[in-house]
What we know:
Layout: H1 15-23, H2 30-42, H3 46-66, E1 71-75, H4 85-90, E2 97-102, H5 105-115, E3 121-125, H6 131-135, H7 138-143, E4 151-154, H8 163-176, E5 182-188, H9 194-201, H10 216-219, E6 226-228, E7 234-235, H11 248-251, E8 255-262
Parallel strand pairs: 1-2, 1-4, 2-3, 4-5
Antiparallel strand pairs: 5-8, 6-8, 7-8
Helix pairs in contact: 1-2
Organism: Actinomycetospora cinnamomea
GO molecular function, one term: methyltransferase activity
InterPro entries: SAM-dependent_MTases_sf (IPR029063), SAM_dep_MeTrfase_SAV2177_type (IPR006764)
Amino acid sequence: MREEPPELAGPTPNGARIFDHFLGGTDHLVVDCEFADEIDRVVSGMGRLCHDLRRFSRTVVRHLAESGVDQFLELGSGLPTVDPVHAVAARHVTAPRVVYVDRDAEAVALASRIAAGVPGVAVEHADLTDVDAVLATPGVRELVDLRRPVAVLAVGVLSALDDETARATLRRYRDAVAPGSALAVTHPTGRGRPELVAWRAIPHTGWSYAPALRDPEDMAAWLEGTELVGPGWTSAPEWALDDPAADPEVTGSGLWGVLARVRRVRG
Length: 267
């Protein structure tokens, strides 16, 4: 756990640091742990959900790297801690290039310090829904060649968006990347997780929000123009290339996950 910086009087909880706490990392403050305890009183499985998100990310990054993808763009990335994308990719492909993007300036500042000096890694401050701004950041322009396949990771972030914004955003990324690129998506569902439904019902302020809960039929249009890989929509932590799809209600994960390849001509 990090010492609270003396220049901050009464730091407030930060979503990225809370996620790090749930993962068992060290890049968070006491106030984040205290807020995480409050979350646990409503959503007792939040720690497991965070681990399941990271498990999905780790699995699909490994699969994509082994298939030859060496460029990764993580949206709403938070902190690159506890087996982050660049560390996973580096185990399976030589010299991967990874750009982390987040709209939280505080998270970006800390993430930049964590990733400082790591070859082929950049951290950028941008809103994932402003696709032009994301693609124009120095990190993307310097590290990512959009003429070659790139993996766009939207893991644990789209539940904050309304349907039309989420659909339009994913389509913009789909149209911006080369055929053979990939979109990796997770999304929470209320199936088998009544506490997630309860989480939506309580008042939310500050960094917290009431996440949308969706199922594959609600999100099918988001991935038009792509080909689903492996099991298609499945319980996120159980995603495996050669395994059949598993329902989150059966696994208790509360998370859908999908990997899709961009196949059609852009536009």
